[in-house]
Specification:
Layout: E1 3-8, H1 12-24, E2 27-34, H2 37-51, E3 56-60, H3 66-72, E4 78-81, H4 88-98, E5 101-104, H5 109-116, H6 119-125, E6 128-130, H7 139-149, E7 153-165, H8 180-188, E8 191-195, E9 198-202, E10 209-213, E11 218-223, H9 232-236, E12 242-249, H10 253-263, E13 271-273, E14 276-278, H11 280-292, E15 299-311, E16 314-325, H12 334-352, E17 358-359, H13 362-365, H14 368-377, E18 381-388
Parallel strand pairs: 1-2, 1-4, 2-3, 4-5, 5-6, 6-17, 7-12
Antiparallel strand pairs: 7-15, 8-9, 8-12, 10-11, 11-12, 13-14, 15-16, 16-18
């Protein structure tokens, strides 16, 4: 059965999602809606050109205009929000009203928990509402749940993840591949983990450690950032002793980021500068974004998951490693594939009725085995193994 999809936000991840939906999502039509008609048109044209068929349509829609959003959603089976996280609560509400399955790329756990409050409405309507379906949280969340499923009993679950330039350039050694507001929110907000079986808030920009990856990657920095596992700690509280993720960056990145944090440049609290009130984070974003925006540069996304527990009565660990590079064949960056294609997989699953109905977390609503099948269909470089636990 072919489906009609709508995507709000015709940027990098929205375009990647549109391509995957049009290619593998049983799509009849894919609507790309953006406040910029030029961006929407170019995105749709790119998808149609790549697939050599007229399936994507670009339209101008301002997501702050509820009437325009509702009009766009008429006849839509499933909708993806690929706009900044602060628009997601209202878009979620309008999607349910329109009878459309809804997912988004998330970015703020508190907003996500408010979206989960739509559970009863979504169940009554026979819909799936699954926020936070980006790379991490989203793809990484499902990989963690899948790793847990490979053991008879899991106790401690860890994830390390990051999107990086293949060739780091000093002084920042970073390449921006998604919205700057999402990045700074991760850097500013605490990590919500499980420690000793309980939900625990851990300060951002802390707990630095070094992690080794096979060549050509080598050694990377890993540290706490916010939002990486979304609501999963609340779901697994009392069931796992440890649940956490650390963000990966090239060596030398952490001292810069920690200095910005200590200085208060990631704060949303206005400060007086002369006669004006200035939001420090807005200043940081305006200065940092052009320094790390390098169009055409190739990137790599790394995710390592380790679940430690028991298998067949013995101590064991399940390890999953995913490494993805910029794809020259499609022109999509690794981050666009890991984020946009993940979102497209879940959205298509929701449209097909393969996800749980209601509103809730990825960890509860996305079947991990089926999701892994979809990843393998797309040719991603994934390794998985179960072995004796490290001493």
């Amino acid at each position: 059965m072919p489906f009609t999809y709508a995507i709000f936000g015709a940027g990098r991840q929205g375009t990647a999602a549109a391509y995957d939906l049009a290619h593998r999502g049983d799509a009849r039509r894919v609507i790309l809606a953006d406040v910029s008609p030029e961006a929407a048109r170019k995105s749709a044209e790119r998808v149609n050109r790549m697939l050599q068929k007229d399936i994507a349509e670009g339209v101008r829609v301002d997501v702050t205009d509820s009437a325009a959003v509702s009009k766009t959603l008429k006849g839509v089976d499933a909708v993806l929000s690929a706009v900044p996280y602060f628009y997601n609560l209202e878009l979620c509400r309008l999607a349910i009203q329109a009878g459309a399955n809804y997912i988004d790329l998330g970015g703020n756990t508190e907003i996500v928990r408010q979206q989960h409050a739509f559970d009863e409405q979504a169940r009554r309507a026979g819909l799936s509402v699954i926020p936070d379906c980006g790379q991490v949280p989203g793809l990484g969340t499902t990989l963690m749940v899948y790793a847990i499923s490979l053991l008879d009993k899991a106790v401690d679950v860890y994830m390390w993840d990051g999107g990086l330039p293949r060739k780091p350039r000093p002084p920042f050694n970073y390449m921006l591949t998604f919205n700057i507001a999402g990045l700074t929110n991760e850097y500013a907000e605490p990590g919500i983990f499980l420690r000793d079986w309980k939900v625990t808030e851990v300060e951002a920009m802390s707990e630095l450690e070094m992690v080794d990856f096979p060549a050509p990657i080598g050694q990377l920095e890993a540290f706490v950032a916010g939002g990486g596992i979304s609501t999963m700690p609340y779901t697994y509280e009392g069931k796992l002793r440890t649940l956490q993720n650390l963000t990966l960056r090239w060596p030398g990145s952490f001292p810069h980021l920690r200095a910005y944090w200590d200085l208060g440049l990631l704060s949303l609290e206005p400060v007086r500068v002369g006669k004006q009130q200035v939001v420090p984070r807005e200043v940081f974003q305006a200065l940092f974004e052009p320094k790390v925006t390098t169009p055409g540069e190739e990137d790599v996304v790394l995710i390592r998951v380790k679940a430690v527990g028991e298998k067949d009565g013995r101590a064991a660990q399940a390890v999953i490693v995913l490494v993805d590079y910029y794809d020259a064949a499609t022109g999509f960056t690794a981050m666009e594939r890991m984020t946009g294609w993940d979102a497209a997989i879940v959205l298509a699953m929701a449209a097909r009725g393969q996800t749980r109905r209601g509103a809730g977390g990825v960890e509860s609503f996305v079947p991990p085995g089926l999701f892994m099948q979809e990843l393998y269909k797309r040719g991603f470089n994934i390794s998985e193994r179960v072995e004796g636990a490290e001493g």
